[in-house]
Amino acid sequence: MNRRSFLSLSTASAAALLATAGMGLAGFFRFLYPGVFYEPARRFKVGYPADFPPGQPVFLPTEKVYLFHDPAKGFSAASAVCTHLGCTVQWSERDRQFDCPCHGSVFAADGAVLRGPAPRPLTWLEVTLSKDGQLQINKNRPVTDAYHLLIPA
Amino acid sequence: MLKSILRSIFRGDPPSTQKGRSELVFYNLWLHIHPAKVRKEHLKLRHTGYLGFVSFFLLLILGATGLALMFYYHPYPPRAYQDMKDLQFVVFLGPFLRNMHRWAAQLLVVAVFLHLCRVFYAGAYKEPRQFNWVVGVLLLFLVLTLSFTGYLLPWDQKAFWAITVGTNIVASAPLVGPVVKVLLLGGHSLGIQALLRFYVLHVAVLPGLAAALVMVHLWRIRKDGGLAPSPSGPREPSAPPRETPIPSSPEKSYGLMGIVTGKPTFEVLVPEEEEAVFSYPYAFLREGAAFLATSAAVMALALLYNAPLSEVADPSKTPNPAKAPWYFLGVQELVSHSPALSGILLPSLLVLALLFLPYYDGNPSRRPRDRVLALSLFALVVLSYLVLLLIGLYFRGAGWAWVWPWAKGAGGGA
């Protein structure tokens, strides 16, 4: 075997080894990445508008969402997941603010950060009326805090 | 008959002779990690504190109790939590075994940490023991990961929210964070998949890795020339030259015997008779005593204090305050000030600084008075973490607000 064929053979072998290892590693990580998520749906119906009279926001525990109903502006929904490290914030009717129990972040009623380590305001989610007349929230569609769904009486 | 059976198992001479005492050590699979003779200095409690032994024994206790607990545990919510209740109320010795596992795990964190401090203070990570320090730091990291994965398994509120916070810290890492979180949890939030993954990591993957590294760690002690001598004593003699050095010229070929009979690179001959004693019985008695003391301490704690268990995990309701296990509270306190920077960057830098310590610390001396800067820096880091930890433990109440520990209803405890 001459030098040229030895070098090209070893380069090819090294490349083949690396490719095999790389494919094995990629396959392993792809294997670990779930093909299906057994989790609450990200788009879901919550009930008829009449079920949510204006007043205190309603907490939806499974989806971790606060549903607001303002008599003048209509419906809006805020994610209850703290933007800091994912604890569930609690609405305080007395102070009209959200408190995070984990690291003390405080959010205003419009979701803005008042205090604490949270880096971003709470996420507002799109609220629409589905065909069967129920309110529908879509976690894949974040909106601004100005977004409201007004249903004419 | 009995005699011939015994002779077939133990081949060496009886340990009444010096030859027999040596053979007892190296004809035995479980003992031959020891040298036949050890330095008297190394057997003193104040030389090592027996911290390596204590850590090893705690690992054994954790393995045994953990295996026992596995017989009654289903990694599936909410059954996992019901299994905790079963262990508490209906399984014979259930509370005792769970308590032992819990307290041994917490003692292990303390023991490996003190072990690290001791080795640092003694400068024992310096040549020729650099690599064993690296293995030790990896083992510390594994111990923390084991404790992190084990913390979720009871599936109570404490577990659920501590791990929620922990995995979200991981997710705040730049670039790979969110993907790593999904791989770790098998989902976007803590649920069925996450419990199974943490279980597999906790009972199979991580203990396997730890066992492998422990073997390397112990083996390297011997290959690196035994324990480091006391830092204030005379300098360690360098490896004696081989009687017949093995030539390494390309023409010469040689059999295995040439390598095997030569002394290991850094093996230092045990010097004068009066400095060394036979491992049997002097070292083994002391190790046995350390094992008994460790087991007794764990059992006493298990009898006196019950492992905590809060209500079953409820993803919609975060308890207030939600605290991590006590040894992670320093990180949580940092995280409460700024997330990614202090939760990811600072700990990663600290781990890297520890890992590569032997390679950038160029000071060859192991005497404390020659290492004032290194020792003070180390003490500063340790003390600041302890202060943060104590703040997180005793001075943080509902909403992570500052409270005085003596105030009524303060949130003390982890």
Task: Record the SSE blueprint.
The complex is a heterodimer of chains A (153) and B (414).
Chain A (H helix, E strand, L loop, with lengths): L2 H30 L10 E5 L10 E3 L4 E6 L3 E6 L10 E3 L4 E3 L6 E3 L4 E3 L8 E6 L5 E9 L10
Chain B lengths: L1 H8 L8 H9 L10 E3 H4 L1 H4 L2 H20 L8 H11 L4 H28 L8 H23 L4 H15 L5 H9 L6 H32 L32 H5 L15 E3 H26 L24 H7 L3 H17 L1 H4 L11 H23 L20
Antiparallel strand pairs in B: 1-2
Outline of this structure?
The complex is a heterodimer of chains A (153) and B (414). Chain A is built from 1 helix and 10 strands.
Annotation keywords:
heterodimer, A: 153 residues, alpha+beta, six-stranded antiparallel beta sheet, 1 helix, 10 strands, B: 414 residues, mainly alpha, Cytochrome Bc1 Complex, Chain C
Name of the CATH class of the domain at 35-230 and 266-317 in chain B: Mainly Alpha
| Low-pLDDT residue spans of chain B | 264-268, 410-414
How would you write the strand order of the largest sheet of chain A? Answer: 1-10-9-4-3-2
Count of extended strands of chain A: 10
Q: How much β-strand is present in the residues of chain B?
A: under 5%
Find the structural class of chain B using helix and strand composition: mainly alpha
Q: What is the CATH architecture assignment of the domain at 35-230 and 266-317 in chain B?
A: Up-down Bundle
From the structure provided, what is the oligomeric state, counting identical versus distinct chains? Answer: heterodimer
CATH hierarchy: architecture of the largest domain in chain A: 3-layer Sandwich
Q: Please work out how many helical segments of chain A DSSP would assign.
A: 1
